[in-house]
Amino acid sequence: MKILLSAILIALTAAGAQSAIMLHGGHDHTPAGVVLTAQKQPAIEATGSVNAVNAGKRTVNITHAPIRALGWPAMTMDFTVAKGVDLAILKRGSEVVFTLSRGADGIYKIDRISTR
Question: What domains are defined for the chain?
């Protein structure tokens, strides 16, 4: 019985390590069968330049500098923006500072943004 319990604990620990897979830009790169658990993580600050704003879909396309906290290189991507964030302040070419947080769905979204 102890051997069976040990084997189960080892399997659960290995599965938990797989849940650390990065999700970004609305794309889920999680292998099939891996279940991610919602964990409260600290917000991550980043900088970039606005390319486009879609108020109807609450998304903003940003070319951002590397985000070291996530291991992301500099790139251009769409981000979902949380409700309550004022998109009216954003214009194409605006230099911005923004904060990302990981939602319960594992996707990073902008929860604060300001122009520089």
Answer: 44-115 (2.40.50.320)
